[in-house]
Amino acid sequence: MRACKLVSSLAVAVLACFLTGSAARAAVITIVNLDGPGEGFNDPTPAAPVGGNPGTTIGAQRLFVFQYAANIWGAILPSAVEIKCNCNFDPQTCDASGAVLGATSAGSSHRDFPGAPFPNTWYQQALANRLAGVDLNPGVNDMNITFNSNIGNTPTPTCPFSWYYGVDGNEGSAIELLPVILHEIGHGLGFATITLAGVQMGTPPGPHVFDRHLYDLTQNMHWNEMASDGQRAASANNCQNLAWDGLCVNAAFPARLGAKPLLRVNSPAPIAGDYEVGLATFGAALSTPGVTANLVLVNDGMGVPTNGCETPYLNAAALAGNIAFIDRGGCTFVTKAKNAQLAGAIGVVVADSTPGCPAAGMSGVDPTITIPVVRITQNDGAAIKPFLAAGVSATMTKDPALDAGAKAGKVLMYTPIPFATGSSVSHWDTSPDPSLLMEPFATPEISSDVDLTLQAFQDIGWFGAASPCGATATTLALFTAQNRDDGILLRWQFGTPSEVMAVTVMRADEAQGPWSSIQPVLGADGAITTALDRGAESGHEYFYRLDVLMSDGTMQSMGLASAHRGVLDTRAYLAPPSPNPASASASVSFRIGRPEFVRLRIVDVNGRRVRTLQEGMMAPGEYTKTWDGANDRGSVVTPGVYFVSLATSQGLKTQRLVVAR
Q1: Of all helices (H) and strands (E), which one includes residue 425?
Q2: Which terminal CB of the chain, N or C, has fewer other CB atoms within 10 Å?
Q3: How far are the Cα atoms of 249, 431, 556 from residue 232, in angstroms, in the given order?
Q4: In this structure, which CATH number among 2.60.40.4070, 2.40.160.60, 3.30.505.50, 2.30.42.10 belongs to the domain 573-659?
């Protein structure tokens, strides 16, 4: 189940999908429309095409987005058995505080079938069919997905959210449907446990293959090793101590996750150490090396004097130049932070008033708050508070040596207190940065990237056991298709070009084929190969993939990209940087459709200039600039989150870029 949390986006999506196993047949994922006439996928309400979606009714646009998401998963996963999804729109929870976006259940689960990698282990239907090579339950479709019909085309007082049916990541204040569908299909494909009662996939007896990778950091064992439901139930409520233990995810996440935010208590020795924190949507971002000062308990002199809700503070002099320690309750987070800032504090730590995990964040808006604000658990607050009077030195920081969302070398799973039916355990934790597709809440960064979900699927067996983390000698790091005035331009780059012997460009009218080879005009843009399809006819949508002959003699079908051949779009376009995350340099591609004064910059999370890559007039065309990871002074920047900023007469476009070293 997925809930609504943040509903804005800075990302511009490109349909680029990668096959990472052997040259097995790509999966075909088919929607079985369960909506009645005039509703859901059959809604006849007229709609203008939007964000790469050509549909002219709400129903047609919903179907297009679903098939778009299905094509992404289908191009990534190998299966000889068609995957069928029962799908519909029905009313679900939606109010001013949030909304349930979708919910998924598996059609059935199977164990001890021919080809099962582990005995007495349950597999959801789609994965079991893939491993068996046949449909084990032909009378039942593989998954059931319901999307929230209470979320309409415009916000309402009772449900202040709306769907965005584009596939370009430009949803603004709406909720982009594409990542929601990718997320829900992800559950149906196997990203969920079916062991605990109350979790969305049912409760057959015995361990699920997902459980083999759930590792409790307190009990020091995997779920399938636990002897009782009680042990697993305790683990499901073991705040930020349940992690994913899989070879493929463990190998991939350090390059994906950014620096970890934390409160580091330097002294005294009895409480020294790192404390998990939740971040605020307001105030300054945590940085490296961060802010170091003494923690000082506020005293506002009224009611609960440590909640910091009234001003002036009685101990404002002691707070000046230090970090305010404030108890939660009595007023908003914004009020507490602003009061502390006015008293001269250089940071704020809010201690929760009820048991629970470190919060995903603190909501609120106040652009005048310029100090960092974090939140810690009630237990951590209780441990620190007795030492405050004698002096506690602490640092509010992001540590690039640690990964946001990971602990003990593993990515954390979602285990809130209390247990959240439909969300607990079967999602990543909310602490990874950048956010991940299979977190329980919608987040701004996600559009079409399946991120670590791919490696989790490798871990549970989608790509076979012989080489679960990818049998290919290279990866497709970039693959895009863009309409131009002289044809459709393809651009690609391999992770290890030396392993590629030959490439054939394949084209089709539909994502599932049939495919035929074409002879485009080849070129190069630095390390990026370009290919111009001059034979693309105006008014048609085309799909492209690469058939790659590897150095070991095997043939791989890699990538899926699409473009509509039509009148050249004169709007400015900024592509996602590549690679992302970047360890050294990153390529930034953009397009302008008319003569423009262009300012292309790298900025930090507060919008401050880090590096200017281009500033001046430019002719219409496609451009690529390389950022070497240094600022304007030539110093290498610290790891963290940055943004590529493209300013033209048409406004400002941004793309998120993570630097991880």
Answers
A1: none
A2: C
A3: 22, 22, 41
A4: 2.60.40.4070
CA distances from 505 to 211, 497, 529, 549 (A): 41, 16, 12, 12
Residues 476-564, CATH architecture = Sandwich (2.60)
Question: Is there a contact between 467 and 479 (Cβ–Cβ < 8 Å)?
Answer: no
Question: Looking at the DSSP assignment, which residues form a beta bridge with residue 564?
Answer: 541
State how far the Cα of 261 lies from the Cα of 263, in Å rounded to an integer: 7
The span from the CA of 327 to the CA of 306, in Å, is 6
Strand (E) or helix (H) holding 365: none
The whole-angstrom distance between residue 513's C-alpha and the CA centroid of its chain comes to: 29
The answer to whether the beta carbons of residues 26 and 75 sit under 8 Å apart is: yes
3-class SS of residue 639: coil
Q: Do 259-403 and 476-564 share a fold?
A: no
CATH number of 259-403: 3.50.30.30
The residues, ordered by sequence, that sit 6+ positions from 481 with a Cβ below 8 Å of its Cβ are 15, 488, 489, 490, 542, 544, 561, 562, 563
Residue-level pLDDT at 1: 45
> Tens digit of pLDDT for each residue in 600-654?
999 887 778 899 999 888 888 888 899 999 998 888 888 888 889 888 877 778 8
- Contact indicator for 100, 3 with CB cutoff of 8 Å: yes
Q: What is the pTM of this model?
A: 0.68
